[in-house]
Amino acid sequence: MHTSIRYALSISLALSLFSGCAPTPKPEKAITIDSTLPVLTINGFISDITSAAFEWKPIDDPRVIGYYIYRDTPGEAGQKLHRIATVESRFATHYVDSDLKPNVQYQYRFATFTKEGSESVGSETITVATQPMIAPVVFFQSVGNMPRSAKLLWRPHSNGKIAGYIIDRLNVNDQTWHEIATISGRLNAEYIDRDLKDAQVYHYRIKAYTHDKLVTEPSEITKVITKPLPPQIKNTTATTERPRVITLTWEPSELKDISHYNIYRSTSPNGSFDYHVKLETTTFTDAIDEDGKNYFYKITAVDKDGLEGLISPISTQGSTLSKPQTPIAVDGKIANKAVELQWSNNDPRTVSYIIIKTVKTSWISRENVEIKDITEPKFHDSDIKPNIGYQYEILSVDKNGIRSLPTKPIELSYEAK
Fold this sequence. Notes:
The protein is an all-beta fold. The chain has one helix spanning 11-19, and strands at 6-9, 31-34, 42-47, 52-56, 64-72, 81-87, 94-97, 105-114, 126-129, 140-146, 149-154, 162-171, 176-184, 190-193, 201-210, 222-225, 237-238, 245-249, 258-266, 274-279, 283-287, 294-303, 316-319, 328-335, 338-344, 350-360, 366-374, 378-381, 389-398, 410-412.
């Protein structure tokens, strides 16, 4: 057995040996240094961004059962070395220290120890500098004016350690960054953010991450403005005096990429406006099989990306041509076994009249006859028989063939003598 000289040193003296600093107050437990134990010799080391790996020469002394690793904490007052790890086998010749900070210098010492807890004099102090963190993505741009989406582009990172990218978007409400996507693969260079708001400003940044989950600093910020909705339609007009149709016209949209226009229709200005028709022109004729019918219209523009402009709160009213006025001051009588009818009408639209003659052929049977193209406000009917009831209704007709509502029925008859 080797002749040994053992002596105990207080913690303060031991730390002084390892750190080269002045002694500190004596702790409760002392470290026993055995100067006869072999001192570890480091063959070399390599460092990465957040780790350092060491190799040493094997120790053959059977008294040694393992190794202590000491390291400083950069930035700590006094720059003392602290025991950070224990290697439990003297046959081990490698150690990796992880979770280090990038681009920082660290001081290391190594010592052997025995099963009794004695340890050797510390090895030579080794200075190890971790590598700088991988540079951020240097080219990051965006494509704006897209419908409810934003296209982000970047140049693939040149460092082979990069495994992918993290996309962050700024929350405008609390001005904080939130991760919205993780893109796997160093060579990927594009991401499209969807379901965005119209005409909204968005800010983005990108970070690269390595295979061992290290994340670079963020890139420069890029700004995107999404495509706005088409503007509201202007100068809409609707006709009110066309027979059985309503014609709408409006000013073309100022946008160049308009695909079509949507027309919505309602029977009330405050009612529900239902989709009615899609058009690529700026005029529309709505065929309506009813006289004097009112409709209310709203029109929107739709661009080639499918974005539809907001519906205007104000509608445009149109109507079909109303019926002409019903004849008034009607007088009817039977004279000389003939019916004599007279009436008046001040409606300038009236061009002719129609007489609807109803013959009561029995208690329950009726026979109707239309007598058209009457141009004067009077009518003589000698085609009547005694003891038969007759009923007459008079309608005005305009140049479009639109009929007025009929007058109240005039009932006439006479008895045979």
